Every structure is written in structure tokens, then in C-alpha cells.
Amino acid sequence: MSSYLYSLLPPSGNNIRLLRLLPNKDEAAPLHCELRNYSLQRLSPRTHLYEALSYVWGNPNETLSIYVNKNRFQVTVNLHVALSRLRDHSFERIIWVDTICIDQSNKEERKQQVQLKAKIYSNAHRVIVWLGEKAVEIKGALEDIQLAANEELTELSKKEIKQQAILNLLQNPWFQRIWVLQEVAAARHVVIMCGSTAIDGYAFCLGRAGLRSKYTANLPERFSLEIRSLAEFVDMFHTRQATNTRDKVYALLDMSSDDPEKAGLQPDYKISWEELFQQLVKFILGKDISVKTYSQRAVIKCKGCILGQVSSVRRDDRQNANIEFRNTARDLGGTMKWTLQASANPIQEHDIICLLYGASKPTIIRPYKDHFAVVVIAATPLNGSSSLEWPKTSQLTTQFLRDFLLVWDWENPQGKLQDQEEYETLTKIYSQALEYSKAEFGGYLSEAIRLWNDIMILDDLEEHDKADERLLEARSDYVAAFGKNHLPRLISQCGRTLLSFAAGEGHEDVIKLLLKTVDPDIKDGRFSRTPLWWAAGNGHEAVVNLLLATSQVEVDSKDYWGRTPLWRAAESGHVAIVNLLLATSQVDVNSKDNDGRTPLWWAAGNGHEAVVNLLLATSQVKVDLKDNYGKTPLSWAAWNGYEAIIELLDKYIN
């Protein structure tokens, strides 16, 4: 007999094939079946009278023969055993089995039939879960679960139950398959079979709940029937197994509340897994990211802002985390409790909550030496917190946006790179994504940006001691790499971003290079100081001109203590810079710091006569403004004995 040749299905989108498993009283007789076309088009409210099989394919290289329409057909050993168990002595059975009912060599048919799988399983009058031809103790575990479901267990008999046998049962490969979520979630009726033993699916779930104890408390809960976003499903189940890696995504589409067509994620077995993985990441995080994929790892280069950090977490069947908000999210409240679905990679204390540029939901990440591991790609709190309006990064000022190098690893969910080769591969991908040349300054620039970016993130998390340690390292490396002289200063007297540090030192060549890719108005996370603030305060006129020429800086931006660049320049007596800032017409000459002191107050008190003249010449200065302690610019100049300034102010007042 020749191998079976498929005929094409009718063009209607609801057509499938069903397998007629023919009866035989001889259990050792070869399995004979017939394939027939069938339409799922509903003609009546009744269910379709076929069963659907949910099983693990098994080793594709170990096969046995059955006969389909009298033609030889090779199936895996596990499927052969399942069909042998299902074959009746007297009556034929009508079954849908994916391996046989779909022409696996026809990619277009596979694509079309995969889109129907949820419908096939939901319309079947029964779904049969085949766990395999297991040992006696596993069958005994099913029987114990059946007793528990029927409430026939006494306290004594509960103690006698073999907990390990139940654990072994639940570690069956079927429970790790990604497709089981779709195959079982919408089923009308489920029967679970292990060898000759069968148990009702609802009784199985009920019995497991009855047996829950300290031994089984950490086992997966019954699958939720709630519809969720694709990102949520992926977070929960991406470590599940699939014979074809692409099915890790395709199996979730029909359960997702997202429209897969709009997402461009319809089943398509002509594209590679790496291409599909890229599409998935961009669908979840938006188009503004750069992503490279290899194997089951995505390396993502993106921008985002820090929202907060996990201060503690408690896990049962869900994850209950306490979140401490920082910086841009502080208006959401200091702390909040989140209840999240169990994720493939469990949340840990100190994990970071961030909102990536272009994403609609926060991402939870975990820091490692040179990258961040993605823990939860789209965090969705189940307790009211989901209704919060997250700061929209697309509408936020870019001042608090940070660069992130993320690794989303589906093979190693912890995300920590295991060896030097992995690290070199990762950094190579990262370097290829950079938009500037590393040739200048001996290739240090990319490393410098990464190191200083880490300092900003630590400041955003209010881990300032750690940030100071990195700042000392970064400052030394900067001086050595760029060959620049650096005045010895306290850490508090240095910029805490790479651009701010260079601006504060007056290094024009470094500034010009950085301005090609770095936000010219970037703020640090500790004192909210910009590069312009540092350049103005340290008297670097050329750098101030470079920054103003970008037309992308907030000239009157205040730091943590309310001090503006004009305040800094006036306080230090930098006449040319005060003149430059006033010429922008974008400054408030009467802006007060947190002590109520204006630029004029400081210029007068420090004896900077030329600066006082410039400020008075604007005709906008309020000379008699008092600080929080009742002192005016005139009284402060008098206190310090600056006669010329006293005369100027007195003349202006009168």
C-alpha cells in the first residue's frame, strides 16, 4: 500500500477533516481509519458530534504505522498508543487529531487550520486529554484525585495518598505544552486519560483543589478562562513547550483579546521564528524600539522612564507585590500593592518597574552587570491599579528618558547571561544598534554612555550611594579615555550624566559628539540638573552656545532646589553667560529658588556688579523682592559691604 496523499480541503474557511477510527475486537489488529471532510458551519444549536484529542506528539523519529483510507500513514508512538486505547470493539469513533487531520506538509493549510483550532476544540462535544501509557503509580494518582473530587477521602486516607505520584503526574509533558491552553480553555467537556484510567476534567480540577497541601501549594492553578491580552498570555506561558517554536505565539492568538490581524500575527509557517519573535516584541512594546533576535532570546534597545521598584513580593497562585514609585510616577502615590497573574519568570524583590517609550503598560525588569532581564513584558495589575493612567512617555519631556538594553530570554527566564561568549554576542548586537561611531576617543564612547546611563538609573531609583560609586569609576575612566584635564571636585560638584559632566568641564569636542545622539536637555535623577545648568554655572560660554543652538533645551529649567541656569551664572558672576541667557527671552529674571532668592539677590550679595547691571537693564527685575528670611538684594549687598552695588540698587529703586 502507498503512503497517504491528501486532497485539498474545500475553499470555505470552516472546512476541516475528521478521522473515523474504525472498530475492531482484536486489540492487536492494525489501526484502520478514514478521513472525511467536514464543515464547522453551524446548522443547528447542537454540538458537533466529534471528539478532539489533546496530546503530546512525542519523538517524531519514533513512529508506527496506521492505515488511513487503506494507505499506510506513520504516526508517533504516543499517538499510536492513544488511538489504540480509543478504538472501540464495536463502534467507530469520530475524532479530530491535528497530526492526521491537517496536511503537515502544506504550510498554507497549516496556517488556515491553526486559525480554526480554538473553534475545533470549542465545538467538539468532548476533548480527550491523553497523558500517555503511564506506570501504575501515575494511574493511582488519577484515582486518588477522583476520590478527592467525590469527597470520599477521610483525613486518614488523605495522609496515605502518594503525594509524589500526584507531583509526577502533574509534571507530565502534556501540562507543559503551550497548545493545552487553547485546547482545554474553551472545551465543553474534558476527559483526562492515562492508560486505561479516565477521569472527568472538572473532577480533576476539583480533586486537585481538595488535595492541596503544603506539598502541592506551589503547583500551577487551574487554567483561567478569562480573556486576556496577548502580552499577558505570553508573560504567563512562554516557557511552555511546543514542537514548533512558532506555536508558542500562535497557540495564544485565539484566546487573546487582541486582534491578531491588526497585530500582523496571523499564523504563518513560512516566516522564521526569529522574524515572528521580532514582530511580537514590536507589537507589545511599540515601533520605537530596536530589537534583534536569535534562538529564543530577544535583545531590545529602547528608551523609557523609571516608575518604581518592587519592595516586597508574596506568591501564592498569584503574585502580590508592594511597589514604591519614584520620579515621574510619584504622583501615583508613594507605595501601592499590585496583584499580578503568576508569570513564567516570577517577580522578585528589587525588580524595577519602568515604562518604555511607546508601550502602553509597564515592564518589570531585573538588573544585571551590563543589561536588564525582562521579567514581565507587560505588567497588568488585577486589582484596580490597572485603571491607573500611566505617564505617557510619548507625551513626556525626554529629560527623564533613559536608555535600556533588555534581554528577553524564553529559554533561560532568569535572564542572566551564562558565559563570556553570550556577553560578547549581546554587546555586539548592542553596538550594531548604536547610531554613532565608536572610532573616536578609542572606542570609549559607547561604554561611557552605558556607564553613565546606569548612574542615572540608580539615581532614578534613589540608590544614590551606589550611583556615587559608579560616578567615581565613570569620572576616572572619562579622564583617562578622553585625555582631558579634570579639576578635583567633590562628587556633588560634578554632573551626574555624561553630557552634564562634559558640559561642566567645558569639553566642547565631547559635547559636539554627544549632541548627535544624546538629549541636550537630559536631567539627572538626583538633583534634576541639566547640561546647561552645569555649563552656565561653571562659566563655559562656548558650551552654553552649543546647547542653546540646539533649540531643544528648557533655558529656565529648575533643579531640585529651584535654581535655574540664570541663577547659577548670576551667582557665579559669569557676565557673558548671563547676557546669552537673557538674550533668549526665555528666562524669568525674578525666578526664586527654594529659599526665595532671585538671580539679582545672589549677584548683589556676591558683589558681581556687571551682572547686576545686566539684570537691571532688562527693566523687569523686582529689586525689592524678599527671600524667605526677609532679606532683599539691597540688604544683602549692604551686609557684605558692596558699596557700588548698593548705589546701583538704590538708584534703581528711587
From TrEMBL:
Presence of the UniProt keyword Acetylation in the record: no
Protein name (Swiss-Prot/TrEMBL): Related to heterokaryon incompatibility protein
A Pfam match: Ank_4
PANTHER family per record: ANKYRIN REPEAT DOMAIN-CONTAINING PROTEIN 39 HOMOLOG-RELATED, HETEROKARYON INCOMPATIBILITY DOMAIN-CONTAINING PROTEIN
UniProt keyword annotations, A-Z: ANK repeat
ANK repeats, residue ranges: 561-594, 595-616
All copies of domain Heterokaryon incompatibility, residue ranges: 50-183
